[in-house]
Write a structure and sequence with these properties.
The structure is a homodimer of 221-residue chains.
Chain A lengths: L2 E13 L3 E13 L5 E4 L9 E3 L4 E4 L3 E5 L5 E15 L8 E3 L2 H10 L9 E7 L6 E6 L5 E10 L1 H14 L8 E10 L1 H9 L3 E4 L2 H7 L2 H4 L2
Parallel strand pairs in A: 11-12, 12-13
Antiparallel strand pairs in A: 1-2, 1-7, 2-3, 3-4, 5-6, 6-7, 9-10, 10-11
Chain B binds a DNA duplex (15 and 15 nucleotides) through strand 4, strand 11 and helix 2.
DNA sequence: GACTCTATCTCGGTA
DNA sequence: TACCGAGGTAGAGTC
């Protein structure tokens, strides 16, 4: 139970969600403790050429390995020549802490909707609709409902998403008058234009400034 | 110029599109020939905890490495104890051949549009518009144009794409009446709702069945 | 270089 | 479990 690294001349066949074949070449085979397998070439970023996610059953047949998943996927690795093999126990990983993702931005804005527009009050975060949840549902000083789509980066698909929600929310006559708003740390010119075309306000917010406004418990990431 | 594998107790900091931190633990550090770096734990599929895509400048400061990209991203790896280190030249990879991706589904459906709807005939594959090509343009038994968006998995994005194409095609009055259709191996409930809202038919097709219908030259993948 | 779209996407959250 | 949305999406193709 550990990470196992094999450098070998090998050819590989995958049959599962699609079928794929790798001709013979020297590659790195990585097998992790959970049974996942990845075949790496010397390039192409972190993505392997072929892989199988855990859980798997790996069987060593000498000249070839078979990796079979319960979902019926199968990877066959033909080993023509093993060049190096190392392994080591890594143990449990304490895990990654992240800061600056969309969820944090949403938390901060839910706690301080005033930062988006003067007088705005929160009705609900993740307001559910049949086509997905609206990030923030608010009410403005005139008492109108405001649907808010939050993005780290405001692009066209954010405006499309907001359009879908508004379209859907308008089917519910009990909500009364509704308007849409796109809020992001930065908004691309194309997205600004499209938002305006659709009658939505857009607002850029400063993440660090928001953290300053937020109550202490949201500042301790 | 080769893949380099280091197993070490390390802690890692990333500052770039977001900020992230990994506390001290034993991990695998992989450096490929192109300069990309990946930090792996012993689990979690093929995705590393942290990474830097090529191109990068990697500097070894003894007790820590810094990896800097031209875009201003920075990864710092503090090495507390190096346990194992191996490397090997892998050489150029001949590359992966695939079968069963969206392009194949499109070929099969172009050859057998009847599988989508009775009486449908192909006008053109990859019908060009100013905002990108429509997967299939067909004509139905009533003589109306049908724009078809093909996906392996039908999700909301596919409906949005189809919406844009239809909007665009309607500007060309020479085409006459136009309707849209979403065709996929499976279609998610939200995508079905949105497609119906927009007045599009959606159809699920079976890939293996289609291969059976297709002429021999399309079956020899 | 910017834009568009696919992906064996992966990953986390939730009903 | 399936579904849904975010992602440091990555990567390929096109313009």
């Amino acid at each position: 139970m550990s990470v196992r690294l094999v450098i070998a001349r090998c050819s590989v066949d995958y049959a599962g969600r699609l079928t794929a074949h790798l001709p013979e070449a020297t590659r790195l085979i990585m097998v992790k403790a959970d049974g996942c397998v990845a075949i790496h070439a010397d390039g192409g970023a972190y993505k392997p050429l072929n892989w199988m996610n855990a859980p798997n059953t790996l069987t060593d047949h000498g000249d070839h390995w078979t990796v079979v998943s319960p979902k019926g996927e199968k990877l066959t690795i033909h080993l023509h020549e093993v060049i190096t093999e190392v392994g080591h126990e890594l143990g449990e990983d304490p895990g990654l802490t992240k800061d600056g993702v969309e969820a944090h931005l949403q938390e901060l804005l839910a706690a301080a909707p005033e930062a988006i527009e003067q007088g705005l009050t929160l009705v609900r975060r993740e307001y559910p609709t049949a086509i997905g949840p609206v990030d923030l549902l608010c009410r403005d000083t005139a008492g109108h409902v405001v649907a808010i789509e939050i993005k780290r980066r405001g692009e066209i698909d954010g405006v499309e998403q907001l359009t879908r929600y508004i379209e859907r929310l308008k089917l519910d006559s009990s909500l009364g008058e509704i308007r849409g708003m796109l809020v992001a740390q930065s908004i691309k010119p194309q997205a600004r234009v499209l938002a305006e075309d659709r009658g939505f306000r857009w607002v850029e917010v400063d993440y660090d400034e928001l953290r300053g406004l937020a109550p202490d418990d949201l500042r301790l990431f």
